[in-house]
Amino acid sequence: MKKENEKFMTELFRTYGDRMYYLARRIVREPPDAEDVVQIALESLMKKTEFLRSLATPALEAYINTTVNHAALNFLRAENREKRKPERMAEQIDTFQSAGQPSVEELVLRSEEKERQQKVWQSLESEERMLMKEKFIDRRSNTWLAEKYGTTAANISMRLTRLKRKIAGLMDSAE
User: Fold this and answer.
1) Whole-angstrom distance, CA of residue 109 vs CA of residue 113
2) What is the rounded CA–CA span in Å between residue 78 and residue 72?
3) How many CB atoms within 10 Å of residue 124?
């Protein structure tokens, strides 16, 4: 049976090889590429020898044409994917960065800024840290803070203003 299949495929190539090459050249243009497409199409057809042997001539010709067309189109797709890989990588990097993702430099700068902020925070007295935390993290009102610390809301506002200035000065000197 194997010999019969080889003989059938040899005869198929003798009969339809030029036509297969012509169809491939119409799509891929370059002769070496067209030869590759014919090879790919023949490999695909070899897997279906029994089926091909059962087809009438018009159906066989249509099947061969379709196989060559698909092989050529797949060949072009694969070729385009290979050519576009560097482009796609650059696009992905641009997309990653333009999608709001920070660059490596930005991450380093953020890390350094965070370290400076932590040093400044640690240099504040514990009561100052507590006041800042309650006002800006816990979102307590000046009235609430005034009641807690036994003073007026205006006094809390003035303390916060002084603390902000102190922190700004410490941040500047930490650079």
Assistant:
1) 6
2) 10
3) 16
